[in-house]
Design a protein that fits this description.
The chain is mainly alpha-helical and 165 residues long. It contains six helices and three strands, in the order ααβααββαα. It has one domain: Winged helix-like DNA-binding domain superfamily/Winged helix DNA-binding domain (Arc Repressor Mutant, subunit A).
């Protein structure tokens, strides 16, 4: 079987189980990183074809879609996505030119900028979200075999006993 004939899950070097050096949580985290990379790679082209935005711009749209209609401050968007504010400013400007977001000044803060989705963006996300969700599911299925999926349980075994506060 050639490399191109192999199942994508077989191409990942991260073991799912065994007597390796890494504890289960670290092994599962490495599997999660590999799976995330596979999803991002697949999503880049699908997002460009369906929404005509970059993957990073798509992440901004998704973040704003889960917020109140008033949106978020630019600093919050940068913090939540772990993006430099200068890069975010460029991406928001691109989304604004495409009619997908609005930028408004924050009342009482002359430097503060609030970003929100437009109705056009909400409609386009609504139209494409099923296809995009299916792309994520398929990329995960293709990148994670049975052993990798089982190993992912190591990230959540006793989550009830872990304090997030």
């Amino acid at each position: 079987m050639s490399g191109s004939d192999a199942h994508p899950a077989d191409q990942f070097a991260c073991p799912a189980a065994g007597d390796g050096l890494l504890p289960g949580e670290l092994r599962a985290w490495m599997i999660l990183l590999a799976a995330t990379g596979a999803v991002e790679q697949r999503m880049r082209s699908v997002v460009k074809e369906t929404l005509d935005v970059s993957h990073d711009e798509f992440l901004i749209l998704c973040l704003l879609a889960e917020q109140p209609r008033t949106g978020l401050r630019m600093t919050q968007v940068a913090d939540l996505l772990g993006r430099p504010k200068t890069r975010l400013t460029y991406q928001i400007a691109c989304l604004q030119r495409a009619g997908l977001v609005t930028r408004t000044s924050v009342c009482g803060d002359k430097r503060g900028v609030q970003v929100a989705l437009t109705e056009k963006a909400r409609a386009r996300l609504g139209e494409t979200s099923g296809l995009l969700a299916g792309t994520v599911r398929q990329a995960l299925a293709d990148s994670m075999g049975t052993e990798q999926r089982a190993a992912m349980g190591a990230l959540l075994p006793d989550l009830e006993g872990v304090s997030g506060d």
